[in-house]
Specification:
0% strand; mainly alpha
């Protein structure tokens, strides 16, 4: 399989199937920095071709986000405080960080989890912080699922619409080009949201 072929990523995702999409988005939603765009956008391309089901792709990827977030939450809930108290000083996280985290999640927990799913540099750690703050599990899972659903739908739809446009003669972009453009675009939007949040 030629990794430089425009069809490399869609073919790879096709071979992995829905279970592979679930597993990779689960891993991506923990601390492992695997971009979901690499998996979910090609799946959207396959959905446009009729090879995969649009809604099953969204369901598999969203469930993966929830599962990965739950793992991070569990780690933060059971081990986060111990890790910060013992090793936090080495990464500039003092004990006061725990208190600030608890206050933040008490006031903005749901919104933070929801928006945290699309903010670069935040989405891999927001669930861990929620666990440290001992946010209640039900609202945590609800807002993780809601944010994950929005994020996965955006990525699937990018791939879907790009392929539909290509079939209509609107362009012939490779999945790598689509993913690169999507990462840049979504990152810029996320940074604008983050900047606005910091002002309040």
């Amino acid at each position: 399989m030629d990794i430089f072929s425009p069809e490399f990523l869609p073919n790879l995702v096709d071979k992995m199937g829905y279970v592979g999409i679930f597993l990779l988005t689960t891993i991506e939603s923990t601390f492992v920095p695997i971009p979901a765009e690499v998996t979910v956008i090609p799946a959207g391309i396959l959905a446009a071709k009729g090879i995969m089901n649009y809604w099953l792709v969204i369901a598999a990827s969203t469930l993966g986000v929830i599962a990965g977030s739950a793992i991070n939450y569990w780690l933060g809930f059971h081990y986060g405080r111990k890790l910060i108290l013992r090793y936090g000083k080495y990464v500039f996280m003092k004990e006061s960080f725990l208190h600030k985290t608890e206050i933040f999640f008490a006031s903005h927990g749901g919104l933070a989890i929801f928006l945290g799913r699309i903010l670069p540099g935040v989405k891999h750690y927001i669930a861990f912080a929620a666990g440290i703050a001992q946010m209640k599990i039900r609202p945590f899972l609800f807002y993780s699922g809601l944010g994950g659903l929005l994020w996965c739908w955006i990525l699937v739809h990018i791939g879907y619409m790009a392929e539909m446009s290509s079939e209509k003669g609107g362009g012939n972009f490779s999945s790598l080009e689509i993913i690169s453009a999507a990462i840049v675009g979504v990152t810029l939007v996320a940074l604008l949201i983050k900047q606005k949040m910091m002002k309040h």
